[in-house]
């Protein structure tokens, strides 16, 4: 039988057997709908966890030289910036307290962080005023009122040595430097010894390797004291475990749904074969080959399963979207394809049984 003729027969037989066809549509649709609203939510949750872990704050690592050994300097910072697993690397000097110089020593104290290299634009975003030159400072938006300032004017006076630093602008801190919003930053006149190196890695999975590489660049002496490392290595391991568990649970549930759906599709097709065996036997007596008969039975199931999968995927995806669980499109399409493949594999047994029926026996009048 030609393919076009076989396809016409599949459509005609599907329309003639409305009840079995409707049952397969329902089963396939429920397979896809159930998989998407359950496993699909797990996939969306896993993607959301991965997205949160890729935010700059979650990828931050820091190395603090509390002993003032001079390990963090322009040379080592440049070497860390050149690493392929590092997105950004910047260093801060030891903070000191300062007050509004116009108010005097009794004014509110705020911390001031010297920025290694003087390029404060790498750690803060200027929102008012101009970029500082050597010996000038920026204050955070959050501390303007504390310093009794209405504009970036005046100067800061260091509490420890009475040094004065003109205020030339106002800023908001960049990601991983949010703690700088509690004070001010300074472009130092002279090179300062770095106290803290803050690094943003390209991904949490590369955190462990980056820690080793950074420490090899800083090369602290074995007996050094006051070297503290804060890295997202534990977070990376936890994220990996969570994703593995979510993937394993989702995979098992999806296989269970597909197996159950395939079983019901096979049961519906087998029942239809038993009910319509005289019609199938008549086709065999008219010269239809066994291969064409298998194609007819399987084609009917695949056609109706495709319709049901399309309906179920659209319904499940729409429901997840309405409750704020954004299911990936590729996952939704994959579920629909798997449902059709599962239905096609499930009907091979009943289709083979229909093709092996003896046309003389099924056509014999009792």
Task: Explain this structure.
By secondary structure, this protein is α+β, with helices and mostly antiparallel strands. It has 2 domains: 3-52 and 239-363, no CATH class; 95-192, no CATH class. 51% of the residues lie in helices and 17% in strands. The chain is built from 10 helices and 11 strands. The strands form 2 sheets. Strands 3-4-9-6-8-7 form a 6-stranded mixed beta barrel. Strands 2-10-1-11 form a 4-stranded antiparallel β-sheet. A hairpin with a 5-residue loop joins β7 (155-158) and β8 (164-173). α2 (18-53) packs antiparallel against α5, α2 (18-53) crosses α7 and α7 runs antiparallel to α8 (329-346). The radius of gyration is 35 Å and the shape is elongated. The two termini are 31 Å apart. The model has no long low-confidence stretch (mean pLDDT 81).
Question: What number is the mean pLDDT?
Answer: 81
Secondary structural class: alpha+beta
Oligomer: single chain
Count of domain modules: 2
In the predicted model, the low-confidence regions spanning at least 5 consecutive residues are none
**Termini gap:** 31 Å
Helical content (DSSP H or I, runs of 4+): 40-55%
Percentage beta strand: 15-25%
Number of H- or I-type helical stretches: 10
Shape: elongated
- From the alpha carbons, calculate the radius of gyration and give it in angstroms: 35 Å
For the largest beta sheet, what order do the strands appear in spatially?
3-4-9-6-8-7
User: What is the element string, with H for helices and E for strands?
Assistant: HHEHEEEEEEEEEHEHHHHHH
**What does the largest sheet look like?**
6 strands, mixed, barrel
- The tally of beta strands, per DSSP, is 11
